[in-house]
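Two records follow; treat each independently.
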Amino acid sequence: MQNNFTKDEIKEIIQWDVKNWKNALPFWDAHFAVKSGMKVLAIGEREGGLSFYFAKLGCEVWCTDYNEMPAVTQKMHEDKGVSSRIHYKKVDMRSIDFEDETFDVVVFKSVIGALGKKKDQDQSIDEIRRVLKTGGALLMAENAQASKFHQKARKKFINWANRWRYITNEDLQFWASGFSKSRFKAHGFSALFGRSEKQRSALASFDKVISPLTPKKWKYIYFGVFIK
């Protein structure tokens, strides 16, 4: 369904390291069919990109963040003509203020690592599973622990890296045990080292070439689909 969007819209949806992270969209499409009218909970949506994505697909979206939603996010949705299908709410993903089995889809990108602790991440996945309808899906794209080179680079160049808990394959396997079906994929290696979006874009093209030769545990993004 990503083909319904222009190149500029994909940039607005993904926002950063676009060439690598945008690969979450076809991965999600391949493993879960999103249909118009579905109820979607989008978590950690300060910029509102994924909320726009699902609203344009005809879904009813709850655009949520831990903090109050910036006015610029709502303005973007109005400009895109999707604001009538979007609701705004403050949500702590460790304690989601919705009833059981409310949503067809829960989605987040680069969010759960900010919780900083495994127990909080596990609790959040439990909450997501609770608010999903049977047969509904968690769609995620998240920063992976990756190689020691990535870990050192993050500590040196990313201010919040020491507070972030980067997820592992073991985390994914543990979360998958609570769902009926799951699929996940590791992606990207060199683009993380780019210091500008132009550099990351060039390195992402290189990643596409070397990906078959790169060990999964060295890759720095995980895409996941977990079906309840």
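The next record belongs to a different protein.
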Amino acid sequence: MEPEVQTQFAEREGIKIAYRIYGRAPRDLIIVPGIISNVEYAHELPGYSEFLNRLSVHFRIIVFDKRGNGLSQKIEDSAPTLEQRMDDIRFVMDAVGSQQATIMGVSEGGSLSALFAAMYPERATNLILFGAFAHTPGLEKLKRYPKFIGKLLKRFMMKRAVKSVYKTWGDGSFVRSVVPSSTIINNELRRKFKEFELASTKAADMAKMVSLLGEMDVTAFLKDVRCPTLVMHSHDDKLIPFSYGQALHEGIRGSELIELSDVGHTYFMSQDPRIADEIISFLSDEQSNNREQSMQGRVLATVMFNDIVGSTRLQAELGDELWKTKIRNFERMCKDSIQRFDGIFIKGLGDGVLAVFSGPARAIRCAIEIKEDAKRLGIELRTGLHVGEIERDIDDISGINVNLASRIQSVATADQVVVSDVLKSLAFGSGLTFEELGDYELKGFDGKWKLSEVR
């Protein structure tokens, strides 16, 4: 390994993310770790340095610790959300000057990476998923039960998982569960596994991350991954069964599946040269750039529509000139809020605005802020939000999910922020609370749609 490699930190919005860079090749490979990592201690584990050495000839490799792990920002009250973890990837890419990169997501980092590739297609040219999964293994069995029983069982299962973390964290058993089945574990490896767990995080923070992991499910968004994707999974993976890798392959159109054996849940400990060889071969395919460019107008995003309640009556009461002034002030206020929450103001609608966001929770919080600020202008709003794939051009957006967000907004009443169930599923762990409104028939759309009000 290059002796001059040092740990650096990406600092942004009060967050510090530890990262390291290996190699000087023109193409970037960002490795997104699973739930346990430490960019410095990882070199103590067998095969890690050799794996990076092999790939750094072909790529500039950036490895990092997500917030809550290793040398990065520690967890405070709650575990980082999916949205915040996607921010970690962006912060690191910006810090190293990487506009576009191949994203390699490992284990829990795979779910995160798939969602990142869908939401930031201009930054993810290729996607590699290793030992990954779309939703927490085992919880799909609860769907066979009535909803209220399923919720109780899920709560029980997650409490048991958290209790196990407190009991075993730091004894090396978690790391032992990821090694290849053929690995002979001696006293030296046991010591390193224990140290690696403690170097990654403490038991209380691991428990928070495990608890939040139970809410994660990106299955609905796999279809929105458009970049070339390689799925790698081993049949002897004891932590994440092979079937979960198979499901990722089936959910991401055009993806390639590499079936491995005797590799376990780690891409380096087996020291199997095929893993690096398959990555190099996959990323040498020149057609990937052409495909990425052909899909660059399509992006997974959260769409927000709001509408002024009783706008016709207000315009009649105020007169045209005062109404124009009020609308200008309203749109200026909306633009300021949307910018603060990292969104894009698309256009004013005369009696409302249209905007898009890459962060689901940021979009909801922005909608709440705009709603409250509008009251000071003597305006009541009704707001609708939905997440889905949209078509973006220079100054507008289009697509069925834009229309769906508009239909959701039409359901809202005065002072309501209404969201689709699929958007609510991405806001877990954000501290936002929701009240289910029931199932609605939306004009022009088949079936019924579950909607909730943000409380």
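Discussion point: The longest helix spans residues 147-168. How would you locate this feature using only the token line?
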